[in-house]
Model the fold of this input.
Amino acid sequence: MIELRNVSKYYNTGSVTETCVFNKFNLNIDKNEFVSVVGSNGSGKTTMLNIICGSIKVDRGDVFLDNKNITNVPEYKRMVKIGRVFQNPAFGTCPSLNIIENMALAENKNKSFDLKPLVDKNRVEKYKTMLKSLNLGLEDKCDINVGALSGGQRQAIALLMSTMIDIKFLILDEHTAALDPKTADVIMELTDKIVKEKNLTAIMVTHNLRYAVEYGNRLLMMHDGQIVIDVKNEEKKNLKVEDVLDKFTTISIECGN
Amino acid sequence: MRTKKILAIIISLSMFMSLSSCGKKSSKVEGEFRIGIGQFAEHPSLDNCREGFLLGLREEGFEQGKNVTFRIDNAQTDGGFASQIFDNYVNNNMDMIVAIATPMAQMAYSRAKDKNIPVIFTAVTDPVAAELADENGKPVGNITGTSDKLPVDLQLSLIHEMYPEAKRVGILYTTSEVNSISSIEEYKYYASSYGIDIITQGISDTSDMALACDNILNKVDVMTNVTDNTVVASLPVLLSKANEKNIPVFGSEIEQVKKGCIACMGLDYVELGKQTGRMAAKILKGEVEAKNLNYEIIESASLYVNSKVADNLNYIINQDIIDRANQVFDTIS
Amino acid sequence: MDAIELLKFYFITPQEIIGILTGVLREGLMYSVASLGVYITYKILDFPDMTVDSSFPLGMSITAILLILDVPPILTLCISFIAGALVGVITGIIHVKFGVRDLLSGIIVMTALYSINLRIAGRSNLPVFKKPTIFHLEYFNFLDRSMKTILILLVIVAICKILLDYYLKTKNGYLLRSVGDNEKLVTALAKDKGNVKIIGLAIANGFVAFAGSIFTHDRGFFEISAGTGTLVIAVSNVIIGMQIAKRIKCISDTTAVIIGSILYRACISIALSWGLEPRDLKLITASLLLIILVMNSIKRKNKVA
Done:
């Protein structure tokens, strides 16, 4: 489980441009929840993910992961249990290495990076099987540097890599936003499959209301550092895109957008 | 593709040029000596040294185009160039290699060690410390030359002559410059016989200059310079501070006297070069081999005086000194 | 200047050609070791590491003093590597742990090391002419001295290349490659990217100090000014090498860097025999480098368009 307790976060503290993103923000995510998070720009969605992952520090409050207070644990140590996929497909892979090398790196996560050769020839077949399951024809492009692949292909590999070993949490930061609608659908399907197969606890920030409604078993809408909609399970199943859109529009009008 | 072509053109062009320049090259002529001269850097003293060397050889009848061909190279303080320059000489079986300044001399020695080409060095302050001569001043191989060690004793005697009552002589130096430190040791060695105390003040770089000047000028009667690059570079600071306190500053080279030091017993690098040239001539004539010829220290120092500086200090220079001076300057540049 | 021009004259013989070739090979091979180090920082880590200009003379000074103390020549190479690596760690710690900018942390260490190098050697110029060096080892004695030197250098460079190639294929090596490529991925792999950078800097400066050590063995003396410009030369070598690697697919990056180092020296030799004044060489080097870089960016633009 993931818990944010009384978290406060300010940007540009002490200057005239000081902005408060969160003031005593609380969030509780249970095991095996797949949470979609929607909200307007500047509502604090990405900041929330960054706080959970440790990319930014909180000003006050505590962050818990698996009942452990991780407020002061550095980002890279939190990654032992967390996998993360970014909006930018370039962030999830190493562009100058080929697909096999990238996957071998990901498979070695949480093991020692010692002076043994990285790529084990016997594992290559297994990687190819995994690639084949993506149906993107990547299994024939194993020797190509990832930098030469399309954004969708890279994002698919990034998703595969972040979930290659047993992690507990998956953080998806608008991971379909940079892709064309068709590829986005493919990646979204894949995400759902992986989350279900591996029993992951996942948080997905997205601007695509359809995905938010369609996938996952909990939906959060955020606005100005507050949670304005929080629906779960059965209630979520009955939720329609229109409902969310209505609420979204109301808030936007209130704000004068 | 296009860039590839351009690159190919550039490379082939440079190849062609380098080959075409070969055409100009003449091969060895009987009875003609080929001398390679490698200079460490472009610097007035080292340039003078080289010119002096050529003059010295000419005086002995060795002249470019007549019986000698020179190849002159400058390493621009780059060790890699220096190495290539001497490689080139060695591969060409030059009759003699001349190296100007310490690192150059060491490089020449390192490159020519296994061949029997005589190496002549000049402007090496301490050939023994540079392992170009053994403790007794004997050559370590087929190598000899001249040292540009400061004529410290003569400088002290000049200071004593001009300011007999001066008991405390100050020297500013940079702590990282080895030549300065060895010069100061030299000063301390000779100072006692004149009843003079040497007072030193170290600096680490130019920015310390002003503070160090203020400090040392309160403790001394006279200042003198060593060939310290950093101090010499910021000489104007020292001169203006010393002027305020009416303390004379003696230089270590002719250039410093031009800039406002009262006088110096300095090295004449042209003279040093000439002396080296005469040594080289002896070797070329076959009178002696480099390996049997000890290195030499310059036989005479030159006296330079600046009368304008003396006026500013209300000091009247003894006519005897004026008469002895190789050059008297009446302006400050 | 005219007088010097007149005095200048050239002659070329087969011996001279061989001489130039051996000279180019020797200097190129020696610099290639330093270039392998700079390849790690410049190309892999994307870190402009100024430390190089001082870890190079560090290797030189340590070797000079160790040879004087009669330490076996081969051992001086290893000790220099370790000392260089330590210096790289210091630069890394200043950058990573204290958050000082990459360029600045290198400059800080470089400045400090200047004094330390003077302290190690005791003076700014330290000859070791009387001591046996790696080039005096009793191998390959059937060859003449310059050939023997080149053969020994070839062996050393080959060992360095093979070790580096092997390292870059290990798990740790791949981690190093990804930190320069995509820091976020290293964090995602639950590894501290800072520590990986420190390791990279350590290996890089180890190689550079190792090269400095070879220089002392070859030259027979240490000179404090010798390090200045090492970074520029090595970066040039790496850039030329990368161009080669791009055009000729079948050679590895490390081989390309070695070839680049030799080519660079060859260019300088050509320029010198061309009758060029050494004083203009730095300008020529800079222009050459600029041409290569500009042509590359033009090419890239064409590709985009």
